[in-house]
Amino acid sequence: MTEAVPVRFVAKNMRVDLELIAGMIEPGSRVLDIGCGDGALLDHLFRTRKCDARGIEIDMAEVTRAVTHGLPVMQGDADSDLSHYPDDAFDYVVLSRTLQAVERPREVLRQMLRIGTRAIVSFPNFGHWSLRWQLLATGRMPMTTTWGRMWYETPNIHPCTIRDFFDLCAQEGYLVENWLAADEAGRRAPWRRAPLLANLFGEQGLFLLRRDQRPKQP
Amino acid sequence: MDQTAFPEIPHRHETFTDGIALDCGVMLAPLDIAYRTYGTLNAARSNAVLICHALTGDQYVAEPHPLTGKPAWWGTLVGPDRPVDTNRYFVICANALGGCMGSTGPRSRRNPSSPEPWGIEFPPITVQDMVRAQKMLIDWLGITRLFAVVGGSMGGMQALAWASLFPEAVFAAVPVATAPYHSAQNIAFHEVGRQAIFADPDFHEGFYWAHGVIPARGLAVARMTAHITYLSEAALTRKFGRRLQGGSAMAPVLFGERFAVESYLEHQGSSFVRRFDANSYLCITRAMDFFDLAADHGGSLAAAFRGSKTRFLLVSFSSDWLFPTAESRAVARALNQAAANVSFVEIVSDKGHDAFLLDEPDFHRTVAGFLRGAAEAAGLP
User: Fold this and answer.
1) Does the beta-carbon distance from A70 to B369 stay under 8 Å?
2) Which of B272, B291, B279, B257 is nearest to B225 (CA)?
3) Greater confidence, A16 or B226?
4) Residue B376: its chain A contacts at CB < 8 A?
């Protein structure tokens, strides 16, 4: 039997937004990456930050690829598998470009901030001007690189905007420790501290959340 | 069918005169553990991999079988440049306690001074007893921590039991095509096999050895039944379909090996009795039936693995209905609950439970990659 030569993921091949995510993670921490794909982020965190990083991925072919690369990944589903983890099992729980595709985004976020101290969430921003313009001008569901599937077959069943996400965090009592907008390639867009502009011009939103531990105001 | 017992042949073994205290309360002494090793133990004694065999397997994991001459039963997975690479790892495989290839079991002498075997009166054993017996061998080999424990089916139960009983002694565990307990359906199939053995007039209530015969027919039927559970409908259809063994369907013979699948099963049954002892089969099927890891921990499977530092790789096969994916997933979830490090893959295959023994490239790549990653984490050269 011939054994394939092990191919290591290298950081420069990583999707750029994964680099932005990695930049939010302290070295040596415990990380769970939900929807980790072939494990590019896990490998990066393991190699460059000595993290104890693990993954869940729904697509079995991707899981096999990740495990074949020696990465601890299990086949599972964000909607049904997070409830099996104990409280505070991780320092960071990452959900990269997956929130819009889960059945119950609010419940998934709750689980993330139950099992992890912090959550890192990235999602394609449905508030981007080109989507708004397409809907206004054509009266049809917008089609872009990110939103590239027809409405009847898209896995992205829960699109939201950066503003919507801010609202949800406020409603659920999550502290936004850091956030940024980025373009499709994951390059940081210059709209920080200007949520309305970010919501118009950012193709993706990236949020670092923490459970709000301050005592509630009377 | 041949009625004589298969020959006793010498097996490399170690005798532990103090014996082993079994879960049932019996002290079994002396204890023989027959085993094989492959590769070289490094100076730090850190590269040992224990392979646990399935119900009817044995220690000859990576070399031809000494009785049948058939190729190594897991030669696709274990050997030089294989996923469990014997150039790199020191591989140990022991005949399970209760087996009939040199480890203490029903065919062993009841006491050293008389030639009488234990036979049907061999004390009931558990999967955990098998693991404790292996632990004695590992200790004797001077190994404090196994780099990995790998096993399929009953071997997978042992891998789970190893990680639960001796978490410090297991760096990585690879339970394949297995479950945290033996299901009612599995117990039911085992019972059919046992009843076939009991019903054989040559069984003589388990004292067949005293009559110079073996319950060949009963044991063969048990094997045939079990073998069906190791396959899938798709695999049977692909291999045999409704193909006939020569002649037309309407030849004036009703029975006999008319269909190809019958002839295949008959062959599985008759070759099995040439290498396996009926009382051993009864004893080991029972040990599997008793297995229920959660029940041993107050009903919580997660409790069996609490605080575990072991890295796990769970593998199931999509067409395995004997140890279905759902059971591996239950283990994965329990390990999540215990915050353990777990990889879990379901390999797509139509070959049923047997797939773990067959040429499944995705399975082999997965094991190879997992062990490579674990070796890196363990600091193995």
Assistant:
1) yes
2) B272
3) B226
4) 70
Q: Quick check: A70 and B372 CB within 8 A?
A: yes
Confidence of residue A6 (pLDDT cuts 50, 70, 90): very low
**Domains along the sequence of chain B with CATH:** 13-184+296-378 (3.40.50.1820), 186-285 (1.10.1740.110)
**pLDDT tens per residue across span B224-283:** 999 999 999 999 999 999 998 876 666 667 777 689 999 999 999 999 999 999 999 999
Provide the ipTM: 0.86
CB-based contact (8 Å) between A94 and chain B?
no
Write out the H or E segment, with its range, that includes residue B170: strand B170-176
The answer to whether B284 touches B129, Cβ cutoff 8 Å, is no
Q: What is the pLDDT of residue A2?
A: 38
Identify the CA nearest to B93 among candidates B41, B139, B138, B47. B138
Domains, chain A, in order of start with CATH, read 11-211 (3.40.50.150)
Instruction: Indicate the DSSP class of residue B357.
Output: G
Instruction: Name the average pLDDT for chain A.
Output: 87
Contact B345 A70 (CB under 8 A): no
Q: Is pLDDT larger for residue A192 or for residue A203?
A: A203
As given in the structure block, the two tokens for residue A14 are 């990583």
Residue with tokens 């950066």: A162
pLDDT band at A191 (very low <50, low <70, confident <90, very high): low
